[in-house]
Amino acid sequence: MSLYCRAAELLSARAGERISAHQVQAVTWLVRQRLNQEAAQRRGLNRLDKGRNHARANSERAWNEFRIVYLPDLAACPGTGYQSAA
Question: Across residues 42-67, what is the average pLDDT?
Answer without folding.
Answer: 89
